[in-house]
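Board notes (copied after class):
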Amino acid sequence: MRGRQWIATGGRASYTARVLPVARRLRFLLRPPGSILVAGAFVLAFGFSLCRRAIVMSDEGYLLLQAADMLDGKVLYRDLDAFVAPGVWLLLAGWFSLVEPSVIASRMLALGCFVATIAVVHRCALRLAGRGAAAGAVAALMVFAVWAFPAWTFSFYSPYAVLFGLLALERLLAWRISQRRRDLILCGVSLGLAMAFKQNYGALASVGVFFGVLACRGEARAPVAPALRAAFADGIAIAAGVAVVGLPLLAYFVAVGAFGAAFESLVLHPFGGFLGRHDIAYLPLSELVQKRAMAGLGRLTYGAWAFTHTALRFDWPQPLVRGIEQLHVILFWLPPAFLAAGAALALAARDERRRFDAGLLAATCVAGCVFLGVFPRADFNHLMNVLQPPILIAAVVSARAVARARRRPRGVFTALTAGAAAALALYAAIGVYWYADLLTTLTAELPQKRGGVLVSPIQQQLLDFEISRIHQATRPGEAVLTLPAGAMLNFLAERPMPSRYYNHYAVHIAHDRGAGVVAGARAADVALVIADYDDFFSERSKLREYAPLLVDYVRREFAIDFLLGIDEQIFLRRRAAPLPASEMLDVLADCDTRSDPLGRRSVRDHLLFRSLHHEFENGAPGEIQRVVTRCRLRVPEAATLALQVGYRQPTRIDRDAELIAEIVVIDLAAKPPRAGILLHAPISVGPALGWSSPPGPEFRLDLSRWAGREVVLAFRSSFRGSAAMNDLDFSGFAMSWQDARLDLVPAPPAATPR
């Protein structure tokens, strides 16, 4: 009977009885508050999937380790070196007092910051341009969260400072409508919190709010003098809000005896440590028309993390790679363009009642001032740190431009709208690919008690190996010195840092040439040093230049235990007796590497020493390859040539492969020049069997017979056979002449006459 009725009505009765009630219930999800709940859940899931992935060995490591050490009674600035406002340290330390310290625990705070930032941007865009702008701002933030990854998804001071700067803007926009003094005080509290997390971002946001208050008071077509007096009173209310945050912090540092150290670290040190010494140039627009791809360091400096870490990037066609690089260049110049457009639209929105649109102008002022925080280190990471406010302005400007184009259709508005939509679609398409890649490649959980985040299986195995070796080499509570920024290893292994310096870049330790680190390491009786093989790529000066006392301490009192990975790090153990103190001269200062058209000879600067690399092609078994480099020097009295000879570890090598190191001395003073063999040494070579490889043999060769003469040292490398390297190793198989130097033995002191 029911079947006949359904057929007779064409199924309409069943549809009405069953489907429509469900549709009415689902319609709730399309209207507030249902839509807000759905969108919030989506944003939360999206943010969580990113926040639980990747690990930042440098900045994240030292923040977490210092926060954990604060629970043991150490005081920031007095006992722990830092030059950024204390907000994130206090937040992390407070959180770790409630939960077990771990990377994954800290990421829950980062997730809260990310979701709160989206909520505040949504609210500001809703006030300025309606639902469309708010939805567009949220979508753009999610797209560029992938481009920014992991800058927005770990507990770092910059995202918190930007969040509170945006919250100050939101309260300013609320006050523009309500005119309630409470909103101004809350605006000041937000600015105080922004300064408490990063002093320059907070100060820049305060300047933007100042101009915003003037804009709101000067918006109406009324006399200027009363508006200025009112703005002065508004400033007092905002300052009171800032004091609500600032005075307790000030009292805290006075109470713990760290006020002087905090003043030096937060006020004096940034000006003396950064200006003109650690700047990175803003990416020029001319890079957009370059036909060649970015160089390796340029891509690391100005490229997204996902761009250099996605699994399939090496298989992409070169035009696609270059196109993505150009999107990076455009991303540097979109914020200034949208900020200028925002100011222009705000100033053009005048009528008989108002001089301009104060809401949009105030938002543009705050966003523009915060964006100046990209300087002086204008690399891609610092660009993303201040991109959230310009995204808000871009969404508002785009929404208003679309609305204006609908009212007065013009070709230029249509073209601009279409161009903006196409650009966002491109960024979104790349972001979706990267996001999917991150979800499928960062899948291995760090097993350490303080880990918990997901990384690539290779990084998980490498970190697990490092932590196990640290545990084998040290006792619980024994300090480990990690250079220059490996504090994450200390945090995961639960081993303290031996001094108040947790990062060892120039901005931290150049003032005393590394003496403070050495004193702390000796006081802690450090037996294990873990050093990066190379300096950080964007560091202008090298560790050997700005911290020679620290480098000298490591080189004389520690010997290489093993090399880790593909020239990733060096584990050094304390020597039974330090090497004697003697002057050293660089043997590789004047070498003929530039004359090699194939680029098989190169002198490279590393963290602790320089090395000469002789690269070999993947030849056929039995084929002999030779690479020679000639270095010119004058031999002083009582000089010993000291060096280590190693090779870049292959994954596969012929069983009967042969590697020979030779040094020939050519005496230029002889007529004709005479040559003599100083070293002939077969080097035992084999494939990598694990994460570590032993150091090469050390040689100390007497040069006394050439004392006072100008000579040429010919470093000759011979390789017979073929070798295959790791897929991620682009340098190829090579012999490495490491730390080649002249040790000058000082003359014994003259006997004192009796």
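Comment from the instructor: The first strand starts at residue 444 and ends at 445. The mean pLDDT is 89.
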